[in-house]
Amino acid sequence: MGVNYRWAYPSFYTENTPFTLWANKYSTTVFRVVDSARLFARGYLGPNATSVGKVYSIDSKDPRSIANSLAPSDLCPNYSDNSGGVNATTWANIYLPPIVKRINALLHGLQFNSSDVNIFPYLCGFETQITGHRSPWCDIFTEEEILQYEYAQDIRYWYGTGLGTDLEKNMMLPFLTALVQRFVDGPNATYPSNSSSGSFQPNPLIATFTNDGQINQLAAAIGVFDNEPQLPATHIPRDRLFRASCISPMRGTIGFERLDCGRRGLFMRIKLNDAVYPVANCQDGPGRSCKLGDYQELVKEKMERFGDFEVACGVANSSVVPVGRERTTFLTEVGLPFEEVVVP
């Protein structure tokens, strides 16, 4: 991935110059998100990555990082990902029993239930990814059954962290607000630094790494699915735009491109895993992009409708959460007390 981005935007990086990335710390024992950032840096920077690269690992569970991390939901007591709730259960009770019946008819002395069979596609995906060879678990299902399982994942994310929720879909709005401001400021902007250098100039390529839950929260906030109807729990709708498999496969990416079109102005283009997804209510620019100022206003209106982040999360009267810090600053303010530096 790092190599591909270096090729895609060759003017964004000058050899052997400093490069900053950010990653969600996730936990004190599991480092897969930070390791993803480290490996990206090695691909993007090349042999000198360990000397010029710097990954800021952000502790999203530190109370000082309220709304200022890559997983702000970690500090929200009111946040609850129910994995799709009753809608997921309704669909599972429709599509799984026929599959269970078909599989059990092939067996002697062993019977599976719906919970067992629901895990089989995971085995297909993970074993294929881990071994580099197609897993035999993938051959257990018909194409129709795989598409039914795909839709189960759509419901899981839509009603767990996405546009089928009230609170959860807004969790990444502070991050999105700060990210859009970086695009408005432009690639040459500098900011005060907490370090001895006196200033910080982010790289033209802004690379951040987090978990699939946060990727889906961000997908809900960016505006590309705003006009989509709620997903039904009883059947698969035709031509639906939202597909979780297109947002967070084994490596999901959400990309934002700042397009400088000269006298026409600045525009924002959004990509999910390299495919362009037009913003639902703002796609009059080149390639169905959105004028950058209009997109900033769209995000601002979403944030205003959401209201006070600390109040919504349930920490407004907490003695451990700093008052008035419900905004994301880490993209322009390095050396924060809840960050630590990891070398690639």
Automatic annotation (TrEMBL):
InterPro entries: His_Pase_clade-2 (IPR000560), His_PPase_superfam (IPR029033). Signal peptide: none annotated. Keywords: Hydrolase. Pfam families: His_Phos_2. This is Phosphoglycerate mutase-like protein. It comes from Zasmidium cellare.
